Amino acid sequence: MAEQEKNRISVEIYGQTYKIVGPESTGHMRLVASIVDDKMREISVHNPTLDNAKLAVLTAVNTVHEYLKLKEQVEALEEQLKKLKD
User: Residues 4, 24: contact at Cβ < 8 Å?
Assistant: First the structure.
């Protein structure tokens, strides 16, 4: 199996530059970085005393929370769709 081609880009998140490598498009990776940056800035406004490490962890916790809620919604919709098909 051939290895998938990987894209490499530099992005800025909360004032720091990161190199991101992945099979997704550079546009997708920039969008992800932009969303993380926006979320960190949003949380920072409400918690200005957090250091960068704690801010990053709180951002991760909030993001995973949002992901799990969306996953639950998708599963509920899939169940509804299955019932409609039966």
Answer: no
Residue 47 lies in a domain: yes
The answer to whether residue 39 sits within a structural domain is: yes
For the record, the structure tokens of 68 come out as 């799990």
User: Closest by alpha carbon to 37, among 12, 63, 64?
Assistant: 12
Say which residue the tokens 């720091």 belong to.
Answer: 16
In tens, the pLDDT along 35-73 reads 999 999 999 999 999 999 999 999 999 999 999 999 999
* Residue-number span of the structural domain to which 51 is assigned: 7-85
Strands 7-13 and 16-22, bridge-based pairing:
antiparallel
Instruction: Report the sign of the C-alpha dihedral through residues 42, 37, 32, 2, in that order.
Output: negative
Work out whether the CA dihedral 36, 15, 54, 9 comes out positive or negative.
positive
